[in-house]
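Exam prep: given the inputs below (a chain plus nicotinamide-adenine-dinucleotide), describe the expected output before reading on.
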Amino acid sequence: MSAEDNSPVPDYLKRGRVDGRNYVILGGGLGMGRQTVHALSQAGASRIMVVDIEQSRADNVAAEIPGGLGWSGDITNRDEVKRLVSNAAKAFGRVHGIVDIVGMAQWAALLDLSDAMLERDLDINFRHAFLASQEFARHMIDNGGGTMVFIASVSGKTSAPMHAGYGAAKAALMAWVQSLAVELGPHQIRANAIAPGTILTPRMDAAFTPEQRRANEAVSPLGRIGRMEDIASTALFLSTEHSAHITGRTIVVDGGVRAKFPYGTL
Ligand SMILES: NC(=O)c1ccc[n+]([C@@H]2O[C@H](COP(=O)([O-])OP(=O)(O)OC[C@H]3O[C@@H](n4cnc5c(N)ncnc54)[C@H](O)[C@@H]3O)[C@@H](O)[C@H]2O)c1
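Solution:
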C-alpha cells in the first residue's frame, strides 16, 4: 500500500478460478469442446454437462473429468434445448455458464449455394446459439446471472471463399452476441464470442494436405497453426472474473493473421 494508492489488491489467481460453478458445454464431445471441458474442470468447475449429438462422445468426455455428465440431443431444435436446460437445472441446481462450440462449414461457390445449404449453414452455425442463449438466459436471469461464450470464426469477419453461407451465419452470431450483452447485462449475464483462425482439430488434422498445412503456417506471424488449447484457454478467460468487464465482444484468436497489412508493400 502506498500513500497515493491504497485501493485493495484482489486475489488475481482466484479471479481465474471457477470453483463451485457449473457449466454446460454444447458440442463438448470433440476437439475444442473437449479441451474447454478440461480447461473449466482444471479451473475448479464443480459440475460440467457435456452436450453432443453423438451420445458416446458426450459420455466419453464426461467420464474424463470429475463431476462430468454426458447429455445427447440436437441443439438446433428448440424443444431439445428446452429439455437440455430443464435437465441441467435439475441435475446441477444452477448453471453458471455455457460455452457453445457447435459449428461446421459447408463448401460451395456462392452461386451454387442452394436454399437447403443456406438453411443448414444457419442451423448449425447460428440457430443453436439463438436457442441456447434465449433458453439459458431465462434460467440465468432467475439465478443471479452467468456467462455465455460462443465460437464464431474469422470467416464471419472477412469474405468466406467457397463457404459464404458459413461466414454469413458466423457474422450473425457475432452481431447476436452484442445484442445479448446489452439486453442481458442488467441481469449480470455476460456474452462474448471467439473468432478462431485455422485450428488444428482432429478433423482438420485428418483433412489437411501437407501443402495446406504449410500454407496455413506460412501466413501466420507466429509461424504455426492454432491449437485447440488456444481456444479453450480463451473460453476459460471469458468464463472467469479475469474478463468480468468484457461483454458483447468477439476475441479473434488467429496468431496475428488479421493484424497484417492487407495491401502488400507500399
Ligand atoms: N477448426 C477450425 O479451423 C475452425 C476455425 C474457425 C472456427 N471454427 C469453429 O469452431 C467450432 C468447433 O469446430 P470443430 O471443427 O472443432 O468442431 P467438431 O466438429 O470437431 O466438434 C463439434 C462437436 O459438436 C457436435 N455437434 C454437431 N452438431 C450438433 C448438434 N446439432 N447438437 C449437438 N452437438 C452437435 C459434434 O458431434 C462434435 O462433437 C465450430 O463452431 C467451428 O465453426 C473452427
